Amino acid sequence: MPVSEKIAAAAAEELRRLERPAATHGSLEAGRVTLAFGDGGESLSAQVFALQNASRVLLDTLSLPLPTSGVLVLDGDDDPRCWAVVVRMAEMSAYPPKLVTWDNVEGLLRLAEKYDMPVVRTACTDFLCRKAGADLSLSAPLTSQRNTLVAATLAERYCVASWLVATSHEATSHELVARGLEPDYEDEMSAFAYIVEEVLDSQLSTLKLRRQGQTTAPRAVASQLRPLVLNNDYATSISAAVQTKVIRALLDSF
């Protein structure tokens, strides 16, 4: 089949998919679906169109007959509390960025990744960027999203952070900007995620003061890093890219 015909056929298929009724079976005809969470008995009602509009995964799932009419059974590891926030975002019952907190940002990012929900990912990235300067600290425990290493890991894993590209050239995005160069961001979210990376770079840069004869500030940062690096969960909780930053900062201090 000629390329032009393939393109035309693909366009026709997309039009048929878009014109397909959002819900034509069971109780979905009322425009709502019940989200059921594993065996815990918890459930949540949501607008079908809102979920389809928010999630590229659910767009197709909710266009097909469900095993149990009107009920979408979600994975047992999905957090019902985070899904309640997602539904509010999808239905626009509240301004999305206002719904993100330090307690739910990781869970929301996991759902955004799993169900391909750009609006949720954007709200979480916005939250991390706005809070990075004032809230992030290396003194926070590894179990807290306020810990700079943890927040940087979230940005790198879920917000397509820029330092993956920068590290391959042995320079951080912060260093590239200092040289008057532009980091090679993959998309707009990467550019925003750079803010979290910049905070991490700034906090780790204190270690370099040791080479200038200063000891108090570098020792303070080292004392904050020690319990984090020695934590049994460090290797799995912190991404390889962020761990590399820590190692480089420590080596550069000598």
From TrEMBL:
Q: Which InterPro entries match?
A: BTB/POZ_dom (IPR000210), SKP1/BTB/POZ_sf (IPR011333)
Which pathway does it operate in?
Protein modification; protein ubiquitination
Report which superkingdom the organism of origin falls in: Eukaryota
The BTB domain is annotated at 94-131
Taken from the record, one Pfam family name reads BTB
Protein name (record): BTB domain-containing protein
- Organism the protein comes from: Gonium pectorale
Source species taxonomy: Eukaryota, Viridiplantae, Chlorophyta, core chlorophytes, Chlorophyceae
